[in-house]
Amino acid sequence: MAKDTKQKLMDAALDIFIRDGYDGANIKDICAEVGIVKSAFYRHFDSKDALWNEMIEQIATHYNRHFNSRKNAIQIPSSLEQFKETALAMFGFTLDDEKVIKARKLLTKEQFSDEKAKQLANYYFCKKQESIFAVIFSGMMEKGLIKQCDVDLLAFGFSAPLSELVHYSDRNPEKREEVLKKAAEFTDMFLKEYGVK
């Protein structure tokens, strides 16, 4: 029961932080959302900052569970078709996972006022995707599936437009199907340019 209440507090806090920002959110509103008194909050967290830190860690763990960037855990595709399937599955997860969407909204809002949020935004919006695709493209180059070139620039060139499409979809959720179509078309164009037949 206590663990369930703690999770409910973090879930409620995420929604309130997205709506009001960290500075605008208060413990009283978070407790009211969960249906507990303010004093009960302190059985689970020492402060709003402690809740924030644990919530951010939980979000990072959730994302990493689905996007493990350890080199030995990344599967190198054996064909261009398999790459497209893998890349679009990763894109679809990022686009549709409710917890990831909320985390992205929170980090987008708080990246200018919270150092940890800024670092996480830099990592998850840019560096993590780039590092995963750099490993994939390096392995695909070794297999002769894509042209030899600067792997880091290639990873950046592939991941940046997809990241922008994700943010566009966050702002315009009614455009989801259009975004998915554009991601598939971009991937086809990318493979036509860099793929080796």
Write structural notes for this entry.
This protein has 197 residues and is mainly alpha-helical. The mean pLDDT is 90. The relative contact order is 0.11. The chain contains nine helices and no strands. It has helices at 2-24, 27-34, 38-41, 48-66, 80-96, 98-110, 115-142, 151-171, 176-194. 77% of the residues lie in helices and 0% in strands. The N and C termini lie far apart (57 Å). The longest helix is centred in the middle third of the chain and has 28 residues, at 115-142.
Computed CA radius of gyration, to the nearest angstrom: 19 Å
User: What fraction of the residues are assigned to beta strands by DSSP?
Assistant: under 5%
Shape: elongated
Q: Flag low-confidence runs.
A: none
Secondary-structure element string: HHHHHHHHH
Structural class: mainly alpha
Largest sheet: none
| Average pLDDT | 90
Count of helical regions: 9
How many E strands? 0
Please describe the topology of this protein:
Blueprint: H1 2-24, H2 27-34, H3 38-41, H4 48-66, H5 80-96, H6 98-110, H7 115-142, H8 151-171, H9 176-194
Helix pairs in contact: 1-2, 1-4, 1-6, 5-9, 6-7, 7-8, 8-9
List keywords for this structure.
elongated, 197 residues, mainly alpha
Question: What is the structure about, briefly put?
Answer:
With 197 residues, this protein is mostly helical. Helices cover 77% and strands 0% of the residues.
